[in-house]
Amino acid sequence: MRERSVMPPCRIPAKPPLQRPPLRTLSCLAKLMPWLAPAVAIGFAFATAGCTDGKAKQTAEPPRTVRVEAVQLVPLQSALTLTGTVRARHETPMAFRVPGKIAERRVDAGARVAAGAVLARLEAEDYRLALRAAEADVRAAEAEMERATAQEVRSRDLAAKGHASQAALDQAVTTARAARERLDAANSQREIAANRLAYTDLKAEADGVVMSVAAEPGQVVAEGRAVLTLATGTAREAVVAVPESRLPALGTGEALVTFWAMPGRTVSARLRELSPEADPVTRTFLARFALDAAGDGLPLGITAQVAVTPAPTPQGGPEIAEVASTAVWWRGDQAMVWVADEAKGRLVEREVSIERLGAERAAVRGDLRPGDKVVVLGVHRLDATMPIRISELN
């Protein structure tokens, strides 16, 4: 009989007994405890002090210096100053009255010309030929009229003697009358052809200065197409471009004109013409101020500065705050300014509406009073929570 193998039972090893530190180590730790406790306390104190100092540094931020200026109230209708140029009162575009090819241009921009001087000339050979044809038509009409007149005389004699009928006489009379009319028409055509030949010379109608030229020799121009611009007379005007926001100020008061090339010279002026349509590019309106007799003969093209002072209102008009243009900042579509609260050392934001915005100064309307300190520099880097120190502009 075969013997069966028996697996030995699985035995779980017993846990080793806990070993206790030797008595010598415990005695050493007991000796070090008086020294370790103060060291731990000192380290914790240093860590706590570091956190406290960091928080103190964050809260003790130094105040930021802001440049401010005091708000001033000014009348809403302040003086309007515009810059332009001096132009002639009469500027005439000169053009040929017949089409053709320019053979010669005798003047350039800036040239002074006398009345009757030839400014430009067209090739005139075709017009000379047209004149010859018209003269030939006149001679033919004269010959026809002489024949018809002689026939009329003979018909009258024959009718008086009874050798010609009344119908033949009437026909001779009609033929002679038609011949005379054709002669008159031929003479008119000859005069027209002579005039068209004369129109090939572009002449100055008065003394003046050539302001600009718009065509060159060899260019074919149409009838009536401007070739150059001629300024005539001594009357002068100041031509300026007016923004649409300042249109109400025009024509309400006196206008004075000064000139950069002539310091100290002032000429009074009046608004003579205002363009009814804005320029499509600059969106400004062209205004022409006529200068008085003191401005006659001024050099053309010099820079003129027109100052329009509005007429005073019975009560002086409403007043608005005037600040530096750099004081205005925007929150979306809303204009804002910073007002410094000197007592609290903080900034307060105020909403304003723009009445007039220039390169250096702005007129605004809002909760602003005379003497308020408005920040004028670095307005986009400020915050209402930061402490400030005020520095006023001189």
Automatic annotation (TrEMBL):
Pfam family, any one: Beta-barrel_RND_2
A GO cellular component entry from the record: efflux pump complex
Assigned protein family: Belongs to the membrane fusion protein (MFP) (TC 8.A.1) family.
Molecular-function GO terms, alphabetical: efflux transmembrane transporter activity
Protein name: Efflux RND transporter periplasmic adaptor subunit
InterPro entries attached to this UniProt entry: Beta-barrel_RND_2, RND_pump_MFP
Classification of source organism: Bacteria, Pseudomonadati, Pseudomonadota, Alphaproteobacteria, Hyphomicrobiales
Domain CusB-like beta-barrel intervals: 239-310
Keyword field: Coiled coil
Matches recorded under NCBIfam families: RND_mfp
Transmembrane spans: none
Membrane among keywords: no
Superkingdom, natural source: Bacteria
Organism annotation: Blastochloris sulfoviridis
Coiled coil: 124-196
